Amino acid sequence: MNANPQHQALQPIQLHLGKSVAKPLTPSPERAATQRWSVDAVEALFNLPFNDLMYRAQQVHREHFNANEVQLSTLLSIKTGGCPEDCGYCPQSVHHETGVEASKMMERDAVMDAARSAQALGATRFCMGAAWRAPKDRDIEKVADMVRGIKSLGMEACCTLGMLNGEQARSLKEAGLDYYNHNLDTAPETYGNIITTRDYQDRLDTLAHVRDVGLSVCSGGIVGMGENRRDRAGLVAQLANLEPYPESVPINELVQVEGTPLHGTEALDPFEFVRTIAVARITMPTARVRLSAGRQQMSEAVQALCFLAGANSMFYGEKLLVTGNPDADRDRALLDKLGMTAAL
Fold it and tell me: What share of residues in the chain are helix, strand, coil (percent, to 5)?
């Protein structure tokens, strides 16, 4: 009998049995959709001694991935500003005075030029973001044409365009889109403190539409928005309990922008960010866990710990939508120092 009182809490829970049943810490890919993580179980992972948590995350990571390889994605804002949502972190909201001006959607040729540049720098996935609450059908037609162009380059294509209905998701799938990004942002219990113009179910509905047409899901969240550790556990539990969990999980650290309601929030301890990466890796073993927004403010040592904790994807390029990101030369130098290579 294990004397550690946390031992039972560290196991996923299989809900349809009606009780907690001890299972291996790392669900296999074919069983991932039937495993469940309670918030208590995820919080228990967060509460492990740091070295123990990192060890477990490394075990899981190495079981499913090359631990010295990272997938590179580039994110381009194809339509900036003027968003009617009131997300407390976002400088593109019309509700916040941040100096970001609304612009029209980029032309296809300009987007293709950006994609070719990203590919030349080593990115294998090109992500397009637009500041909409929900796109119109005519917008989807234009984006679908861009997707076909991206695919003609041999790159993976991803979009984040706001809420989708089923027909819009199908149109993007037929154009060749690989991934659709729609973040849950935070735990259900704290969601209303961050956003009031869209509810949690709206986000889950969009993810369901995306899944229904066979698109891969990219969904994660933002930490450092004033939440506590249990809130972070709640976010990870929500993601890990999606059926199946996302293929790609971006973990963002809040980038504080003057004029947004969350400007001035107490900064998250770097070790807590690393813990979030490790817990995401353990609970979603076959997902690409991505270092996303906030990386520019991280030291190289913190980023190295994130890779050790199981991050194996990152946004690559000098800008993420309207916020800064380390430039490509700096990123290549860091990967060289760590003996890591870009996934092909």
Answer: 40, 15, 40
Amino acid at 179: Y
Tell me, yes or no, if 90 is annotated catalytic. Answer: yes
Is residue 79 within 8 A of residue 103, CB to CB? The reply is yes
Predicted confidence (pLDDT) per residue in 68-112, tens digit: 999 999 999 999 888 888 888 888 888 887 777 788 899 999 999
Q: Is 158 a catalytic residue?
A: yes
Instruction: Decide if 159 is catalytic.
Output: no
Of 158, 151, 154, 152, the C-alpha closest to 126 is: 158
- Catalytic residue, from 36, 56, 170, 290: name it: 290
Question: For this structure, is 306 an active site residue?
Answer: no
Residues 2-60 have pLDDT tens digits of: 444 333 344 443 333 222 322 333 333 443 444 589 999 999 999 999 999 999 999 99
Handedness of CA 230, 234, 236, 240 (dihedral sign): positive
What is the Cα–Cα distance from 287 to 64, expressed in whole angstroms?
A: 9
pLDDT digit string (tens) for 122-155? 889 999 999 898 999 999 999 999 999 999 999 9
Q: Report the pLDDT value the prediction gives residue 35, as an integer from 0 to 100.
A: 57
Instruction: Check if the beta carbon of residue 159 is closer than 8 Å to that of residue 180.
Output: yes
Is 125:72 a contact under the CB 8 Å cutoff?
Answer: yes
Report in angstroms the alpha-carbon separations of 276 from 283, 285, 311.
Answer: 11, 14, 10
How many CB atoms are located within 10 Å of the residue 266 CB?
Answer: 7
Told to judge if 290 belongs to the known catalytic residues of this protein, a careful annotator would answer yes
CB 12 within 8 A of CB 28: no
pLDDT of residue 34: 47
Report the alpha-carbon distance of residue 277 to residue 292 in Å, rounded: 11
Could you tell me how far CA 52 lies from the centroid of its own chain?
24
